[in-house]
User: Which sequence fits this backbone?
């Protein structure tokens, strides 16, 4: 860990207001923060805790609709709250840099990566274009990007997500800043890619003795990166302590609850035995392609009634495509899908209403999967009406019943709009909509990925309860192995459109594994602060680069 | 690049098919008009013999679809027939007029397109300031006023009261280019006023639409000054909608300028079309309509290709 020197950033009683419903509401309530040169501070908390807002405020920046309303932010002797906008601009990019959550969205699609990299050094007249480009290539090499001499001359969409995130870290380093704000830099990445990015960030921060604020909601990640951890809740500090101490003996109840969040685990069920036991859905050797690109290759697995099959793999491995084939949105080019032993027509247009009713879907982004202009009662009522022909009071009582099932009070939520709900509540509405059809098989596509851990756990418990109550079968698509551990009965591991391994959960989590399963499992960060270091030693540096291309 | 060429060729092919369909519509729309063409041309004093002779001469006794292909065949070789009124070849009657219209359209476009994009960038940069509001109100006023009204206002203040520019934009063959620009300034200015608002507001909207993007926030957090954020980071990603609106307005400058031509007595194709409709000079009406259709199709094609060329994802495939 870096030696502590003098204080670089001193934030006192920081207050930030956000504009909503035509008034200013305080969203950060007096947070203090001290950061020394070369030190890494981890900010953790759920969404809405004000982590990003505080991180940006450390650059003297407030997003549109936000304003810094009180307190002081002193950066290297300069009071940022009273500094003019043009002087602040001169600090940004040169002495304080920012690394955003999604590099794919934060790189300008219209310019080459290296031109965006060299923009700040050229603007601040630190380097000429050629020097800046050479320096960029050296940084790319340090961050172990493939073809460092060439990769910068590509456009962002021509480079993979993990590589872009490293290129963005390189860009933040362009002017050798004193402080970098990392705002959830690995949240959008697969576990295997996350490791390279984490290792790269830690290396470069150590090498240049740069101070950093590392914002994340993932405790295991922050444990690898930070010297000190500060826990935030709803714009207030809960507690702050050195990393080891924070992990070993958290003081506050809220922190303890965060630490315990992955405790939910239900017992694993075995397949029903006996000759008449029949899978509810049976995928048999399906292949599918988008245009000429083959995306699924001989995918087969069975789902039995009342059981949860988790389908895991990195993005692009064909998990969601398999779901699209089962629902009939993407007809497979070969193979078949059996429902209770009967083949389903490949196209959903050719399926009977009853066949459609039996297979329902819950989506990752409840935000975009619910029409914001339609009231909750109509969102849930529509499938109930369509599949069961309910009307009038029968329909209303069915909607009430469904709202009860997802633990939202009917009288309160019946006629609201989706925008009035929190993320977790929206996802519950998504579940109710699927239930309204009275299905026997539900596909859950990354349903908890966009949610905070506490909220996600609530959703998992709800799904588990509903499964018991209605003997539902789930196909649970996820890249999060912690979720798999807590709710799956069987696991299907996919890679590049193929099933590489499948079996009961216990077997899958016990060695020996298929090499790819092993890579996935060992890449999940653990709460031990030395986990990353020992993993990297174990794998050796060469293998990290390979993981990128898997 | 091969993909783009293929795409352009495909669009061009589709454009030709559209043009073919439009030509059918134009021909048979004229065909549907009540009354006999020969009778209408010759007027009330015509005898049965002269009408019959003219019908024979014009080939009106053939079935409609034969005349259509005859007409289409001629149109493909640039022969649109003969004017029923003057006896002049339609291609001759149209070509000078069309050149005049193109000149006026180009004149207006050369001023209006850069001006509106520049103004659009400025109002995006100074959004929600007084300048933004004033610019919006002024351009909206000019787009909401009928163009003949704008034309007369300009004539009143810039020709009648001050005598800066001539009120009538008549042309003669021996004019110098400077004279020509001076003479046609008022109609061009009227057109500029009409089309600027649309393009400026689309530029503003397309840019502001992007300002919430993460890459714009990233640029700000790199310390990029506001004007550069707009010009370098937002504008290159905003071209597609801007180009489409520009193309629509250019098409309007060519096909929708009848009123302005009438107000300034400018010898353009719009006036020719109006005269021809009044006199039932159908070969000219048909030819004008076909040219207008072709203009729309070509400009929209150019807009599509332009949108593709400004999209880095399509220009630099993986």
Assistant:
């Amino acid at each position: 860990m870096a030696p502590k020197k003098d204080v670089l950033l001193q934030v006192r009683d920081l207050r930030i207001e956000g504009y909503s419903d035509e008034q200013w509401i305080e969203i950060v309530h007096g947070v203090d923060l001290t950061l020394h040169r070369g030190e890494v501070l981890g900010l953790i908390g759920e969404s809405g805790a004000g982590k990003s807002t505080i991180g940006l405020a450390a650059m003297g920046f407030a997003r549109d609709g936000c304003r810094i309303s009180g307190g002081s932010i002193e950066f290297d002797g300069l009071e940022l709250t009273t500094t003019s906008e043009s002087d602040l601009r001169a600090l940004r990019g040169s002495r304080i840099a920012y690394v955003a959550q999604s590099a794919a969205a934060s790189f300008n699609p219209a310019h080459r990566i290296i031109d965006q990299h060299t923009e700040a050094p050229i603007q601040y007249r630190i380097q000429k274009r050629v020097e800046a480009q050479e320096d960029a290539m050296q940084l790319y090499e340090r961050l172990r990007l493939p073809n460092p001499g060439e990769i910068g001359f590509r456009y962002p969409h021509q480079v993979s997500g993990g590589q872009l995130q490293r290129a963005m870290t390189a860009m933040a380093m362009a002017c050798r800043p004193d402080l970098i704000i990392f705002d959830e830099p690995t949240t959008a990445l697969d576990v295997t890619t996350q490791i390279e990015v984490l290792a790269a960030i830690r290396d470069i921060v150590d090498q240049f003795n740069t101070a950093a604020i590392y914002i994340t909601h993932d405790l295991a990640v922050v444990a690898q990166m930070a010297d000190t951890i500060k826990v935030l809740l709803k714009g207030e500090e809960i507690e702050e302590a050195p990393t080891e101490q924070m992990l070993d003996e958290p003081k506050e109840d809220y922190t303890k609850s965060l630490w315990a969040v992955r405790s939910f685990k239900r017992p694993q069920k075995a397949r029903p035995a006996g000759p008449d036991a029949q899978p509810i859905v049976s995928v048999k050797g399906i292949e599918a392609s988008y245009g000429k690109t083959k995306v699924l290759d001989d995918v087969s697995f069975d789902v039995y009634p009342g059981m949860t099959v988790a389908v895991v793999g990195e993005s692009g491995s064909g998990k969601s495509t398999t779901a699209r084939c089962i629902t009939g949105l993407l007809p497979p080019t070969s193979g078949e899908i059996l429902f209770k032993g009967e083949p389903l027509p490949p196209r959903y247009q050719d399926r009977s209403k009853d066949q459609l009713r039996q297979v329902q879907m819950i989506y990752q982004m409840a935000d975009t999967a619910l029409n914001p202009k339609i009231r909750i009662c109509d969102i849930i009522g529509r499938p109930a009406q369509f599949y069961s022909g309910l009307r009038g009071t029968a329909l209303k009582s069915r909607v009430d019943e469904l709202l009860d099932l997802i633990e939202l009070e009917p009288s309160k939520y019946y006629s609201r709009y989706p925008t009035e709900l929190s993320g977790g509540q929206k996802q519950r509405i998504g579940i109710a909509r699927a239930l309204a059809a009275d299905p026997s098989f539900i596909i859950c596509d990354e349903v908890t990925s966009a949610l905070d851990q506490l909220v996600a756990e609530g959703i998992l418990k709800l799904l588990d309860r509903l499964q018991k109550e209605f003997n539902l079968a789930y196909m649970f698509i996820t890249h999060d192995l912690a979720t798999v551990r807590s709710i799956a009965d069987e696991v299907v591991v996919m890679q590049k459109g193929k099933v590489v391994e499948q079996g009961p959960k216990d077997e899958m989590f016990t060695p020996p594994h298929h090499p790819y399963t092993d890579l996935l499992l060992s890449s999940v960060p653990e709460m031990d602060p030395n986990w990353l270091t020992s993993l990297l030693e174990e794998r050796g540096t060469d293998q990290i680069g390979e993981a990128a291309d898997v | 690049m091969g993909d783009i060429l293929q795409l352009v060729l495909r669009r061009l092919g589709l454009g030709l098919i559209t043009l073919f369909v439009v030509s059918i519509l134009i021909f048979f729309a004229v065909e549907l008009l009540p009354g006999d063409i020969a009778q209408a041309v010759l007027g009330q004093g015509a005898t049965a013999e002269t009408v019959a002779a003219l019908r024979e001469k014009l080939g009106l006794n053939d079935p409609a679809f034969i005349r259509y292909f005859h007409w289409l065949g001629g149109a493909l070789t640039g022969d649109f027939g003969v004017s029923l009124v003057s006896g002049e070849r339609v291609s001759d009657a149209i070509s000078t007029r069309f050149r005049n219209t193109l000149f006026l359209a180009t004149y207006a476009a050369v001023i209006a397109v850069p001006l509106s994009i520049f103004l659009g960038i400025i109002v995006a940069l100074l959004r929600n300031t007084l300048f933004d509001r004033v610019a919006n109100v002024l351009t909206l006023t000019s787009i909401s006023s009928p163009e003949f009204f704008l034309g007369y206002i300009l004539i009143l203040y810039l020709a009648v009261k001050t005598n800066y520019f001539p009120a009538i934009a008549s042309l003669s063959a021996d004019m110098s280019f400077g004279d020509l620009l001076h003479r046609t300034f008022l109609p061009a200015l009227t057109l500029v006023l009409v089309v600027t608002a649309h393009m400026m507001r689309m530029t503003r909207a397309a840019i502001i639409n992007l300002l919430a993007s993460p890459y714009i926030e990233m640029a700000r957090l790199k310390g990029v000054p506001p004007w550069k954020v707009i010009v370098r980071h937002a504008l290159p990603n905003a071209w597609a909608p801007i180009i489409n609106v520009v193309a629509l307005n250019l098409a309007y400058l060519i096909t929708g300028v009848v009123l302005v031509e009438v107000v300034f007595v400018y010898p353009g194709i719009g006036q020719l079309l109006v005269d021809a409709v009044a006199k039932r000079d159908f070969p000219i009406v048909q030819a004008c309509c076909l040219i207008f259709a072709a203009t729309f199709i070509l400009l929209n094609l150019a807009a599509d290709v332009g949108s593709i060329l400004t999209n880095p994802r399509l220009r630099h495939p993986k």
Summary: The interface with chain B takes residues 56, 59, 61, 63-64, 89-94, 97-98, 100-102, 105-111, 119-120, 123-124, 154-155, 157-158, 171 of chain A (CB under 8 Å). Chain A has a mean pLDDT of 85.
